[in-house]
Amino acid sequence: MTAKGLKKLLLVGNPNVGKSVIFGNLTGKYATVSNYPGTTVEVSTGNATIKGIPYVVTDTPGVNSLLPMSEDEQVTRDILLHEDFDTVIQVADVKNLRRSLLISLQLSEMGVPFVMALNMADEAENLGITTDLAALSGSIGVDTVSTVATRKKGVSKLKEVCRTPRHSTLSITYGERVENAIKAMEPLLPEAKISKRSLALMLIGGDSSLRIWLHSLIPDASIDALEEIVNNLQAQYPEPLGYYINRKRLLAVDKIVKSCQSRVKGARKGFRQWLGAITMHPLWGLPVLLVVLYIMYEFVGVFGAGTLVDFMENTVFNKGINPFVIRLFDYVPAQFLRELFVGQYGIVTMAVTYSIAIVLPITTTFFMAFGILEDSGYLPRLAIMVNRVFRLIGLNGKAVLPMVLGLGCCTMATLTTRILETKKERVIVTLLLALAIPCSAQLGVIMGMLAGISGEATIIWALVLLSVLFLIGWLSSKIIKGEPSDFILELPPMRVPKLKNIVNKTIGRIEWYLKEAVPLFILGTLILFTADKLMLLGLAEKIASPVIVGLLGLPEKTTTAFIIGFLRRDYGAAGLYAMQKAGELTPVQVLVSVVTITLFVPCIAQFFITAKERGMKTAVAMMAFIFPFAILVGSALNFSLRFLGATLK
Amino acid sequence: MPHKKEAGAGFTVTGEIRDEFLESLWLLEETGNGKKTDKQSVFTLAVQEGYIEDNAGVEAVINDMAAKGDILLDDDYVSLSERGRDTARNIIRRKRLAETLLSEVFALGPMEMKNAACRFEHILSPEVTDSVCSFLGHPPSCPHGKPIPRGNCCKKLAHHIRPLVMPMKDLEPGNRARITFISPRDHGRMDRLSTLGIVPGTDIVLHQKKPAFVIRAGETELALDLDIAAEIYVKIIS
Questions:
Q1: Cβ B212 vs Cβ A480: under 8 Å
Q2: How many angstroms separate the CA of residue B36 from the nearest CA in chain A?
């Protein structure tokens, strides 16, 4: 991972305690900070210099227990189990000391020395919670520092103490029977970086993720023996042992919390609490949701896709950059090169113009809006509002995060389906993202096209999409096997987002977009350019024309847009947009083509990510379904509109 | 076990074996996480409990009880019929009430309690059962934390006075309550709740019930589905 000899520092803690912000404070580099449980699936590392000594800092995914119950938790446990490190900072939300100490106790049992950062001290103060740090340090035996990471308070003190972590004195006994089982298990367990006692407790708690690792180190007979000890022990308890252990731990932890923390009653009601409650109110939550959507539409759809795109496209590119580049290429003697860069399918005039002038402003404004929603704590509350509806399609409210993110970029959203707990949910969301969720870039272009016809058309488009979304969601929840996961969701308090965080996050995502999407735009343009030169476009138009003309009732030329649509969805839509502007499409044709291209196959990047996340077989199966299905819906719409004699004017 | 019996082909199942068998099926369904019960696990449990000698015996019992309509057979899966379920519910109710009585009132040890309760479940009449239930204050769970099926006496009561312990789903928004026990369908759910600090003894405030349950425990705010809220039993505190 890193050069040898560098000291290593781990950040460990519950989700949403500000680990990533502390990480940023230490390293100066920003990792994604988000209020939604589980967004830090990937582990970030960075370099820090602490009192003159260089460190490599690793920010582990948030955990509620070191007995893994999710992929995230397993990642963190495995880092503690397998990797070398010099010091650990446990980041705690001081308001939630009880749950933090549950982690401290487990670190202590592992024999991992650490220091504790009691973060969010400002919020605790507002709630009237006071903590006796000396008493806390005394009862757990490690250094504790009070911090407000977002304002860098306490960070220098943290840097001072984190170089000398101590073994915690926190320990409990689990009753004679469990203790005897631990004693019997310890000699059978292999030497590891963490204590045998903690390994035994993990096995007793029902951890099956250790199995492969154990198999590589100890004989099968020992594994059988371990299993038998656990089974015999479980037989003596009416409740699951993992639960029993957690109860014992909480009992011990509660005593410590009681002895060192106190709260003034009645300090609770505040504007933020009120706002938090109203956003998930069964009645008022809905208007709040509509207001949020409306503001997003104004910011992304009107300001981003309208004003900014207009400025970038017409002023910056068409009046500034493009004429300049074209004039520059006038000096290039080769006709071929001129066309390659500045022709109809030119790299500058098409790929760069589309990606920078049209798509970039839209994605930028969307990611800013999304970042604000993330940091404000609204997203989990949105999940509550939509939970019931999502239940109908075999999902629960948590699936709203990838779905909303999909409105920004479906490729990125496909990656975040990892936060869903069951395979069934991941497959359904991935399919819906590929089928019925338009990304911000495509959405911007489509909105522009629909605005050009009538409100009626927009409503039909939205209704068709929603029906498809629910029909296919419902059907796949019936067909795909498996249980929906439990809806247990932690709600972080509502917070005013910090501008700096939003800007940093948006920059990170734009960087990703530029690296990911722009090369594909150029590749797509090159493919088109080649196809055009080889007269393949004409051929493809001929082959596809029975479908395009016969079923969808569209001009042959739209074939090109659908072909490019596979490279970038928005790119295809942009082609249609250009045709509409040139007066080559009737309103009915606009609507049919827009519905078809929204449903149409995902872009190349999304396809690759789908294949990577769900497997090539699933990805291909999805494509094989989506391609004819989009045509089917488009044709059905075409025929019914014509049958009804609708003009949509 | 005192009631071991030779089970050959063509014999009919009566009395205690029938009771024991229905009880086994109930337990398998209860711990089976909503999954169907396959014959193999019935074989294992019945033989392990010792009231039937071997697999062939269990097979005979299954066939006879299916013929009588106590259980339903579906390929390799066995489930309780409507009638069988009623009988099984009463047996379980008697047994768990007996366990509660013996452990809470007479303070017997676990082994003593189990042996005595095993005999009680076959002999308590419906009237006596309801009396015991009322005497104990209509407890929702046995000493092992497993739910006691409700009887008629409990239903009558529900309309008159508020039960001491009730599922969280029956709380009103704004209520403060202490969790007394959790009886989930699957263990994973219990483990997950416990890592979030939701265990018996934890005090909670219910904020809202729709569109999802929102509770606060300390400074942790959690949203839960109705079906989870139905499995967490609480006692109102003021």
A1: no
A2: 14
pLDDT at B14: 67
| CB-based contact, A201 to chain B, within 8 Å | no
Identify all chain A residues contacting B196, using CB atoms and an 8 Å cutoff: 64, 99, 488, 490
B195: which chain A residues are within 8 Å (Cβ-Cβ)?
64-65, 67, 69, 99, 102, 246
Inform me whether the C-beta atom of residue B224 falls under 8 Å from chain A C-beta atoms: yes
Mean pLDDT of A576-587: 84
Buried b / exposed e over A413-434, threshold 16 CB at 10 Å, is bbbbbbbbbbebbbbbbbbbbb
Interchain contact A387–B (C-beta under 8 A): yes
Closest Cα partner for A237 from A325, A178, A314, A296? A178
Instruction: For chain B, positions 173-212, list CB contacts with chain A under 8 A.
Output: 187-197, 199-202, 207-208, 210-212
How far apart CA A117 and CA A146 sit, in angstroms, is 6
User: Tell me: the pLDDT tens digits for A450-469?
Assistant: 877 877 888 899 999 999 99
Enter the tokens of residue A240: 């699951």
Measured CA angle at B97 (ends B94, B99), to 5 deg = 105
Q: pLDDT tens-digit profile of A331-344?
A: 878 888 888 888 87
Distance CA B121, CA B23 (A): 10
Domain ranges, ordered by start, for chain B: 15-80, 97-160, 165-237
Q: Name the residue facing B207 among A206, A247, A277 (closest C-beta).
A: A277
% of residues, chain A, pLDDT over 90: 19
User: Among partner residues A99, A242, A384, which is closest to B212 by beta-carbon distance?
Assistant: A384
Among candidate residues A307, A310, A472, A469, the one with its CA nearest the CA of residue A400? A469
A128 neighbourhood in chain B, CB within 8 Å: none
* ipTM tops 0.90: no
Q: What is the pLDDT of residues A530-548, one digit of tens each?
A: 888 887 777 877 888 888 8
> Could you give the angle at the alpha carbon of A272 between the alpha carbons of A270 and A274, nearest 5°?
70
Q: What single letter denotes the amino acid at residue A199?
A: L
Selected residue with higher pLDDT from A287 and B122:
A287
Comparing CA positions, the residue from A558, A569, A562, A601 lying closest to residue A363 is A569
**B33 at interface of A, judged by CB pairs closer than 8 A:** no
Tell me whether residues A243 and B207 touch, CB distance under 8 A.
Answer: no
Nearest CA distance, B187 vs chain A (angstrom): 6
Take residue B213 and report the two structure tokens written for it: 């349950």
**Domains in chain A, CATH or no CATH each:** 7-161 (3.40.50.300), 176-263 (1.10.287.1770), 379-644 (no CATH)
Q: Quick one: which of B67, B160, B187, B208 has its CA closest to A205? A: B187
Q: Which residue(s) pair with A55 in the sheet?
A: A7, A48
| Residue keyed to tokens 């290593």 | A8
| CATH code assigned to B15-80 | 1.10.10
Q: Which of A55-64, B25-34, B101-110, B157-166 has the highest mean pLDDT?
A: A55-64
Cα distance between residue A59 and residue A76, in whole Å: 9
Do the domains B165-237 and B15-80 match in fold? no
Provide the CATH topology of domain B165-237. Answer: SH3 type barrels. (2.30.30)
pLDDT of residue B60: 85
Interface size between A and B, measured as CB pairs under 8 A: 124
Q: Pick from A488, A490, A494, A495 the residue to mutate for testing the B interface (most B CBs within 10 Å).
A: A488
Contact state of A396 with B225 under an 8 Å Cβ cutoff: yes
Task: Give residue for tokens 């960075």.
Answer: A46
Contact of A67 with A205, CB cutoff 8 Å: yes
d(CA A169, CA A24): 30
Residues in chain B: 238
Q: pLDDT, tens digit, for every residue of B104-117?
A: 767 677 787 778 87
